[in-house]
Write a structure and sequence with these properties.
Elements lengths: L7 H6 L7 E4 L3 H12 L4 E4 L11 E4 L1 H9 L3 H7 L1 E2 L2 E5 L5 E6 L11 E4 H16 L4 E2 L4 E6 L4 E5 L5 E3 L1 E4 L6 H6 L7 E14 L7 E7 L3 E10 L5 E10 L31 H6 L3 E9 L11 E3 L14 H18 L3 H25 L4 H10 L7 H4 L2 H15 L3 H5 L1
Parallel strand pairs: 1-2, 1-12, 2-8, 5-14, 12-18
Antiparallel strand pairs: 3-7, 4-7, 5-6, 9-10, 10-11, 13-16, 13-17, 14-15, 15-16
Bound molecules: flavin-adenine dinucleotide.
Amino acid sequence: MRLTGTGAGDNIRGMSRESEILVIGAGIGGLTLALALHARGLPCRLFEAAPEFQPLGVGINMLPHAIRELSALGLQSGLGAYGVEAREFAYFNRHGQAVFAEPCGRFAGYEHPHFSIHRADLHKVLLDAVRERLGPDAVRLGHCCVGVEQDAEGVTARFDGVEPAAGSIAIAADGFHSAVRRQFHPSEGAPHFGGINMWRGVTRRKPFLTGASVTRVGTVARGKMVIYPIRQFADGTQLINWNTEQPRADHKPNDWATPGRIEDFIEPFADWRFDWLDVPALIADAEFILEYPMVDRQPIGRWTFGRVTLLGDAAHPMYPRGGNGGAQAILDAEALARLLDGFDDPKAALQAYEDERLAPTSEIVLTNRDQPPDYIIETVEALTGGERFERIDDVIDPAELAAISDRYKDIAGYSVGTAKR
Ligand SMILES: Cc1cc2nc3c(=O)[nH]c(=O)nc-3n(C[C@H](O)[C@H](O)[C@H](O)COP(=O)(O)OP(=O)(O)OC[C@H]3O[C@@H](n4cnc5c(N)ncnc54)[C@H](O)[C@@H]3O)c2cc1C
């Protein structure tokens, strides 16, 4: 994309405000995109609805395919300073019996690590880098986008109560409730609710298992948990992120800040006192609890409309299973920056981006509904009727469980070979 001049440096120095790329939303996807564009000499400005950034949400797993891209942007050591480098994925039934385990990240032979990290820490690393590299004013807070208009020359983003902004193209990274997606897909309707509710929290305690295990326990029907450490403290304790899933007929709106109550979800976990972790104590000692519904959206057939496209959750909101929503937003950002740099015509670049990213992310959305990695435990549960077993090898060949994990990695683009790219 050659906006002015002939080279990346010319683009930056000769840039008029009207030829900048407008990025709507300064979450994981928008910030990564800004860094990736900057690295290629393509100027942009970000417009964020929030008046200020709050330390939002809890933990997030950044798998090697995401870290590969963040490392290319020079962020690996910053992330490592905050997060915990995960060593293994470990799966258990509801009795706390080990069903399957495999190394992850560098311990599995990936070139890049797998970090489990607090969402606020990840966001801070990205935001600090954007402000340092693009300037303190690169992110305009309090800019809630209400729509984007375009003509042959460029785009105009409109905001609630503030001046509009003009640019060459607009990238909507405005998350699950994307206003820009709604503009282009006005009849899409409410999010798809999977009949499952989640309650999440963080608890500071001493490490469990390897001190760097990403564990999945139980099944949705009888109560499921995902538990992993996201911060290491000097006194040897860790901040443990935990998430529960249970079937429910209805749900509250999907907002990451909705508070949850222990009494609404504790029942299936009340006797989960395993020799490796006391789950009721973990939940009881939580610093806070949040409630969130299992929602996504049916994949859509089109993200790109001339000079405007969708990225991240705005493009492909997915169930938060398998640690891939944020990762896919990061992969989108890499692809989009690369293609914008490679094409003279920005509209052709946006179309090429959709052609590259829409099909694989749609497959992940659908796979996260039916066969996420915890399908491993569902498979064992079906074979044992949910009862204890003597030896897992008598229940199923562990190679079959490994195949479930490998299939998910293939679909999500983080098999060892692919992630090395
Ligand atoms: C419970 C849970 C657990 C998860 N765990 C993982 C995990 O382990 N690994 C993983 O990779 N992913 C995980 N995800 C998914 C991941 O958080 C999302 O996929 C990721 O945040 C998407 O990034 P994004 O930039 O597209 O959207 P967001 O990070 O949501 O950012 C969107 C930004 O746009 C702003 N915005 C919204 N509307 C407007 C507007 N109209 N105008 C301007 N700005 C606007 C928002 O304020 C926000 O800053 C999880 C999600 C949930 C809910």
